[in-house]
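INFO  loader      accepted 1 record
INFO  loader      residues=78
INFO  predictor   begin
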Amino acid sequence: MAAVCQVTGAVPGFGHNISHSHRRTKRRFDPNVQKKTYFVASLGRKITLNVSAKGIKVIDARGIESVVKDLLAKGVKL
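INFO  predictor   done
INFO  writer      dumping tokens
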């Protein structure tokens, strides 16, 4: 599963691990992406979204109907 949130668009960040001796090695900061299933009354079915923890909070605040409307306007296939 790709580490990209369908709601917020959060993608992995990149940086360094820094050891005690201060040597740097590359690392990747992945967002907390989870697969969640929501029932959308306007579509009359369940949809599965890959959403980050912040994306779940956005859905709770705005409502799934509003978020799905925006996703369909962007052209995201559900």
